[in-house]
Amino acid sequence: MIATAIPKTTDTSIHHLDDILEDLAQRRDAWANLAVPQILDLLEQLEKTLPPIYQPMVNAGAAHKDIDPKSDLALEEWGTPLVMGVHIKQLKMSFEEILEHGSPQITNDFVKRPDNRLSLEVNPRGLLNKLLFPNDKGEIWFKPNVTEEQIRAGVARPYHEKQQGKTTLVLGAGNIGTLIPGDFLYKLFIERQVVIVKMNPVNEYLGPLLEEGYAPLIDAGYLRIVYGGVDVAQYLIHHELVDELHITGSDSTYEAIVFGTGEAGQLRKQQGERIVTKRFTSELGNVTPVIIYPDGWSQTDIERVANAIVAQHAGNAGHYCLTARLVVMQENWKHRDAFIDAMDKAYRRLPDRKSYYPRVEERRDEFLAHYPDARQYGNGNLPWTFAVDVDSTDVDAPAFKLETFCGILSEVGLSGQSPEAFLRHAVEFVNDHVWGTLTASLIVPTDYETHDAVEQAIADLRYGSVILNGFGANGYGAVPLTWGGHSGSTPQDIQSGIGVVNNVLMFDEDHIQKSVLRLPFKSLKSQIDFEKEQGLVNLLAPLSHTIMQPTPKHIGQVMWQFVRMATGRNN
Questions:
Q1: Residue 531 has what pLDDT?
Q2: Cβ neighbours for 448, distance < 8 A, ≥ 6 positions apart
Q3: Does residue 2 have a pLDDT over 50?
Q4: What is the DSSP string of 226-283?
Q5: Weakest-pLDDT range from 210-219, 350-359, 492-501
């Protein structure tokens, strides 16, 4: 393993916070009405300043998590620069279209669905994305009775009307670096607000690298990054120069900010009395369900998909808001035992990981108190845990209500005399009894992907991101789509949050209900071979640079790595 020094930070003083907010306040009206050519100039600068921080970010993240930056476990670290690059290129495309046409371009026809909802295919977008992901079809679904005329009129509205400048406080996610720029770029470029980011102490080591990579925005006075704990957060939340708030975190943190803590906080929540009334958008996690369609499976398919679910669940040691938490199967499916056995074998081959996120031990203890017979694997500081055949009638149990935020996965069997009946039951169950509305996966073999029952399930799932034959990470990485909880949450019933990010086509949030991403069943596979290196980590470095700067050199490096992987010469 390569030894890497993790960047050190110090808490930002209260005096300095005041100065920063004063500086942002002086720039917010200018930013809110900045001409599009100047915005494009900033994005072009970012194309040059971001690639130099890619490898340092990967090294720092790997050191923090005790993984080898050259191993395939570091794929999750390379996901950050990959998505950062995609985000900048997609934003640049949108502003080029605004400059030429007045708005980001809608190139496909709207589809009117039987329930009077419109949907629009928006992904893949751009030549490079179409070459890399030709079979990934992403749609944005709009709320019932919203018309095409209303949708078109709402696109890029902040760029059609004079704006009053605002300052947003972004309380950064502590688990993965990708989310922090995703949040502040949305507030900056889609909502036209200047941003102060308060880094989470868990991953504040990324702050100096983000300051370096996003220096053009910081130097221009539109973005600042600060450090500290709860005291700094509270000072900023209540500061008169902070107009709006955004958090990627937990529902308990959101509620503590909005209503306060303890019995008094619970009483205020019940009565709807907020102590923070500023607009507050949020992404707050999920008990993520993975529904298995019970028909059309071979043994090879079972082993391949079981490996994929376990590998996705193990990513970042389970410290993702979109991590698979609950596998839902038909209780009398003839392949259910084989699927569980395949998952069990995958867990037995899974490398140990360091569980680094604070206080997850308490959640694990709560879970194991309810499921003492859950299977445990490995010798990590928090062993991988798999609870099989949990009781579906115990709907308030941790398997359905507790986002453990670590390496714990449950499996439940539900009734259904036919695959179609099971699917209806599964959708109703996760909608009504499983906590959160962020993302849900539906795994369907090829012969059934377009069946009416599957289409109805996609339509009925009340999640902000519905993934057919993939996982939440696929949905987040497809930045033309929206990411956030399903519309309809309120501060008193916050679930997975209010508002969206990504949304580079700049649709009006009030019109959006959810996004749907459809991937081919055959493409669903483990990103990590449990027994040997696949060389994918060697591919992502040149691919990340190619997305940002598609030079002949970078394209050649990507092609060469594909050849090495195809011939088994990965090292």
A1: 45
A2: 293, 295, 296, 419, 454
A3: no
A4: E---HHHHHHHHT-TT--EEEEES-HHHHHHHHH-SHHHHHHHHHHT--S--S-EEEE
A5: 350-359
Q: Residue 260: pLDDT above 90?
A: yes
Pairing of strands 194-198, 167-171: parallel
Pairing outcome for strands 118-123 and 111-112: antiparallel
Alpha-helical (H) ranges within 161-246 are 179-185, 207-213, 215-219, 230-237
Nearest-10 crossing angle of helices 36-49, 75-101:
160
H or E element, residue 34: none
CA distances from 343 to 185, 382, 526 (A): 38, 18, 12
Instruction: Indicate whether 567 pLDDT > 60.
Output: yes
Amino acid at 197: V
Mean pLDDT of 435-463: 98
When comparing pLDDT for 534 and 426, which is higher? 426
CB-CB contact of 196 with 224 (8 Å): yes
End-to-end CA distance of the chain: 15
Q: How many Cα neighbours within 13 Å face the side chain of 497?
A: 28
Amino acid at 8: K
How many angstroms separate the CA atoms of 411 and 423, rounded? 16
**Pairing state of beta strands 439-443 and 408-414?**
unpaired
- Give the single-character DSSP code of 190: I
Confidence check: pLDDT of 511 > 90: yes
Q: Is 528's pLDDT higher than 60?
A: no
Residue 1 has pLDDT above 50, yes or no: no
Strand 223-226's sheet: what is its strand order?
A: 223-226, 194-198, 167-171, 244-248, 280-283
pLDDT tier for residue 148 given thresholds of 50, 70 and 90:
very high
- Calpha distance 91→79 (Å, rounded): 18
Q: How far is CA 485 from CA 148, 289, 401, in A?
A: 23, 14, 16
CA-based nearest residue to 30, from 253, 194, 276, 215:
194
Out of 1-5, 76-80, 146-150, least confident range: 1-5
Cα dihedral sign, 473-479-480-485: positive
Q: How far is CA 10 from CA 93, 180, 517, in A?
A: 37, 19, 41
Alpha carbons 79 and 536: distance in angstroms, whole number: 11
What pLDDT digit, counting tens, does each position of 85-135 carry? Answer: 999 999 999 999 999 999 999 999 999 998 999 999 999 999 878 887 888
CB 460 within 8 A of CB 220: no
Distance between CA atoms of residues 557 and 366, nearest Å: 48
**CA–CA separation, 249 vs 403, rounded Å?**
12
Identify the CA nearest to 515 among candidates 466, 455, 459, 449.
Answer: 466
Q: For the whole model, what pTM was predicted?
A: 0.96
In single-letter form, the type of residue at position 289 comes to P
d(CA 386, CA 326): 10
Q: Are 84 and 181 in contact (CB under 8 A)?
A: yes
Residue-level pLDDT at 530: 46
Tell me how far apart the 2 most distant CA atoms of the chain are, in Å.
66
